[in-house]
Amino acid sequence: MSTLRLAELATTDVEALLREPHPVALLPVGSTEPHGPHLPLLTDALLSEHACLVAARALRASGVTAVVCPTLPYGVTRYAAEFAGAISLTAETTRAVVRELCAAYVAAGFARVAVVNNHLEPEHVEALAAAVAAVPGAVFANQLTKRWGRTLSEEFRRGDCHAGSYETSLVLAARPELVRDDVRATLAPVPISLSKAIREGKVTFKAMGSERGYFGSPALGSAAEGAEQYALLAAMIVAEVRESLGLDPRPAR
Ligand SMILES: [Zn+2]
Question: What secondary structure does DSSP assign to 81-140, as a single string?
Fold first, then answer.
C-alpha cells in the first residue's frame, strides 16, 4: 500500500490495512476562513492535511500503519466574519460531525482515529475536544496544550499567529503556488496577540486590531520555517498516537 490517503484506496486495500496490528486514521480538520490578503481560505485545512501526511509517513516508518482521511474543511469561524469568505458551522454541528466521524472510523475497525486541527478559534477547538472526549479510540493532537504549544515557533507562542509568518511558512512549504508573494512582501507586521485579545473578550479580527485579517509578520515567512514547523507538528501527532496505543512516544530510528 503506497498511498497515504485513505480515499485513494479500494475497499480490498482497506480490508488488508485493517488486518495490520495498529491501523490508525488521521483526520485533518480545518476551516473555510479568510487569512489576510495573501493566503487562501483553505489555509487551516491544508495545514492539517499536510501535517497528517508527514505524520503518517513517520508512523509507518515506526511500524504503525497510518492513513490520512479525507479532510473536513469546515468549522466554527466567527472571528473572521467581517471578511469575505468566512463560512461557519455552529459549534454544535462541528462537535456532532467530528464525533460521528470519529465513531465511524472506530466502528470501521481502526485502532485509533486522531483529530489534527489548525483552526485555533477557541469555540472550534472546544468543539473538537468535546467530540474526541465522547469517543473511545479517538485522540486529539492539540497544539494549544502546554505540552505541544511550547514546541512551536516564537510567533505561534506569542499568539499573533493568524496568517502571520507561522501559517504563511506552512502554506509556502506545502502549496507555494497558493501564496500571493507580491502581496505579502508589502504587509506591515501586526504584532497583536490573538490569545490576549480573546482573553479581553474581543470577538472579531477587526475588533482585535487587524484591519486586513492577518496578525504577525507574513513577510517573514519561509518554506524552510514551514518544513521545520511541519516536523514539529508531525512529532506531536506521532507521539499522541503512539502513546494512545501504549507504545513509546518517540520511535527508535
Ligand atoms: Zn489559520
Answer: TTSTT-BB--HHHHHHHHHHHHHHHHHTT-SEEEEEE----HHHHHHHHHHHHTSTTEEE
